[in-house]
Amino acid sequence: MKIAFVGKWWSGKTTISALFSSYISNHKKTLLIDADINVHLPQLFLPNTEWIESLYISSTTNSKDIKQYLIGANKRIINLDTFRKTTPPGEWSNFVVLWNNKDYIISKYTLPITNNLNLMIVWTYSWDLVWTSCYHNNLAVLENVLSHMKDQDWICIVDMVAWTDAFASSLHMQFDITVLVIESTRKWLELWKQYQELSKTSGTYDSLFVVINKVEENDDVDFVKNLISKDKILGFLTISKYIKNVEKYWWIINFLSLEDNNKEVFSVIRKLTETHKTNTEEKLHSLYELHKKYVNQWFIKDRFWDLSWQIDDNFNPFDERNE
Ligand SMILES: Nc1ncnc2c1ncn2[C@@H]1O[C@H](COP(=O)(O)OP(=O)(O)OP(=O)(O)O)[C@@H](O)[C@H]1O
Ligand SMILES: [Mg+2]
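# magnesium ion complex -> structure
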């Protein structure tokens, strides 16, 4: 189960991802991924974050190592350069498997926060990439990690880049559930409209939900309920003294310390992760179509000719026999 928290800048994506991880990891093994250009999750869990640089998955050395590992002995990938962000796994690919603590990617590139919770960090621009790169290049290795992930018995939570950025890549297609964090104003509802349209176009609307954050007035929730269909609204969080204090005093974030009235929405999200069913055949088909669309672009064709051949129709990464 992969769940992403998305939304405008400052909406509360990081705070809600962290609180949900702190809560759900008491019930399930959890991988929390910081995939935002503004990296804020480490601060919420680790007071001293300076030494974790060697873990950043988008650094040039690490992303190469991760890609090489995921390629494994997949014969459809002839070299590292042809392993593109949309390249699907095939026979003899390696996968990321959280429940196995000895898993190569988990043990080398994540930080254990508790027994059940590990943190992975994509990271922002490094000096060698300043002026020459775009953050989507950093996210490419995350696309590979997510598409090569065995996540049946555990949960992967992604704190995403702001706005509708997930639609610039295959990321929007990778999540089983996407939670849009909004506030109760017209301006924020415009973002909901954009998300709604884009997800309908891409066939991911069924997996899109909303959490209303920073609720102050009694009518804040009603305002949203009048404009968004009720079955899409998971709940709300009021302005929280505890959340303010976490940032003010740099406390380590802990779900148990949150005010009771703000806890409810997290059990609704948990229930959704237990009941929501992804149509894996449809998802696979869409991911293959995205790969074809990506590799059909002139700059890929000029360089590599035809990479649609990387799709192995006889291989299903969601098939449990491939564990
Ligand atoms: N319910 C809440 N009550 C009080 N403060 C909140 C609440 N939710 C979030 N905040 C505060 O709002 C600010 C933005 O929250 P957060 O960093 O989680 O948002 P974000 O969407 O991840 O932002 P960015 O786009 O910068 O990554 C932070 O100062 C956070 O402490
Ligand atoms: Mg954030």
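# post-check
The chain is about 40% helix and 15% strand.
The chain has a mean pLDDT of 89.
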